[in-house]
Design a protein that fits this description.
Keywords: 4Fe-4S, DNA damage, DNA repair, Hydrolase, Iron, Iron-sulfur, Metal-binding. Pfam families: UDG. The protein is of the alpha/beta class. It contains eight helices and seven strands, in the order αβααβββαβααββαα. The chain has one domain: 3-Layer(aba) Sandwich (Uracil-DNA Glycosylase, subunit E), CATH 3.40.470.10.
Length: 226
């Protein structure tokens, strides 16, 4: 029986963005190529590819999960409420936002429609989708060559460490950067923390503590900058 969106007798859609990643291209070339990525089925429902944003000389890569509704509409990462929380926390931690490159582990918005109305409800990407998109992340990290990578939330951590990653076990410490698609990143450290959307989801009593924890973890990243 064919899966939804797959015609009878058709080949299953691949889960590998690798063939779409141009060899030797700069960030602009990657961004242009990513607009046509068909490396997993998520491209079918999403409005557009949301590639990373920032300069190739950035010292810090901020790695989130996937674009949200606003990011999908505008084509840029972290432009919604969570992005506002993140940039405020980055600045408060002592990291110049201009020295950051912001991207996501998955470049297309995964969602399910609301039972009522036109609202699109965020749905976390699965490990197969995360793995399919990893060639884009590996190419970004190769070109930027950051001193520090900050993973924001569980999906970002799993993209680098695998399915066993748990934010609570790893957050707030300087960790060695694992290979990405077999690519080593000597000289790059990693700091794990919560996704800024967790601050927004916290109740009134816990929101201040969640935000303070995010800032505290980002201060660890700030101290690693030489």
């Amino acid at each position: 029986m064919a899966r939804a969106g797959q015609a009878d007798g058709a080949e299953p859609e691949p889960y590998d963005a690798g063939p779409f990643v141009p060899a030797g291209g700069d960030l602009r070339a990657l961004r242009e190529a990513a607009a046509g990525c068909r490396g997993c089925p998520l491209h079918r429902a999403a409005g557009q590819t949301v590639f990373g944003s920032g300069d190739a000389s950035a010292r810090v890569v901020l790695l989130g999960e996937q674009p949200g509704d606003q990011e999908d509409r505008q084509g840029r990462p972290f432009v919604g409420p969570a992005g506002g929380v993140l940039m405020r926390a980055v600045d408060e931690a002592g990291i110049d936002p201009a020295l950051t490159y912001v991207t996501n582990a998955v470049k297309h918005f995964k969602f399910e429609p609301s039972p009522r109305g036109k609202r699109r409800i965020h749905k976390a990407p699965n490990l197969r989708e995360i793995s399919a998109c990893k060639p884009w992340l590996a190419a970004e990290l190769r070109l930027v060559g950051p001193e520090v990578v900050v993973t924001l939330g569980a999906t970002a951590g799993k993209a680098l460490f695998g399915s066993s990653f748990r934010v609570a076990e790893k957050r707030g410490a300087a960790l060695p950067m694992p290979p990405v698609d077999g690519q080593e990143s000597p000289g790059t450290a990693l700091v794990a923390t919560i996704h800024p959307s967790a601050v927004l989801r916290a109740d009134d009593a816990g929101r201040a503590a969640a935000y303070a924890g995010l800032v505290s973890d980002l201060k660890v990243a700030a101290r690693l900058l030489t």
